[in-house]
Structure formats: structure tokens, C-alpha cells
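Sample entry as discussed:
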Amino acid sequence: MDTYAVIETGGKQYRVEKGSTLLVDRLSADEGEKVNLRAVAFRDKEMVLGKDLEKVKVEATVAGHERGPKIRVFKYRPKKGYRRRAGHRSELTRLEITDLKMLSRKPAGSASATGKPAAKKSEEGGDGS
């Protein structure tokens, strides 16, 4: 049984395995930089969903920035003299999945983002002098 994860980036979801490459919407990361991706589902021996996904780590390396194929859009109404031509090329990023695993506990970065910073702010602002 192979290990895979479903990740979310740019409002789209992708099924990835370790060593796979995929094209996603342009990311702000530089070429060669490591990126952590948000897991929506993870399957190893069993399916992991919901709250346990905080323990899932999906890491990728930016292989390069590319441009998609040129898409031409042409609107036309017969007998009306209406013609509109437009088009675009998507800005894309190629990712290589380097690490895909389930950690034994939550990573340190997500633990600090719970409620502790909010408690500090309430202590600072209560004095007023």
C-alpha cells in the first residue's frame, strides 16, 4: 500500500506522493526553496482526516517557475459585427514533493499559534499607563 496525501494550495487540491512533481499556481517562494503544504487528507496504513492532520508534514522543493500554454479566448456574435479577442498565460510553479510523513506530535510552530499570543496582548493592554 502506498502512502499519499491530498494537499491544498491556490484554492485547488492535489493528490501527491513522495518523489512526485506537480504544477500549481505561482507561489512567492524562490527556486530551490522548501515549502510546507497544507494537508487535507493523508493515507498511510489508514486514512487520516480532521484534527489529526496537524501532525501530517508535507514538504516540497520549488523546482522552478514556468508559464502555462497560451490560451486564446474569442467571442463572436453572428450578423452583429461583435468580435472580442483576449487571452492569457498562467504563471505556474513546479513543485517536487520531498517529504511526506505523519509526526508523532504536533509541530512546534502550530502549537504557539493556539491561544498564547492573545493572552499576552490582553495582559499588556490592561494597565494603560
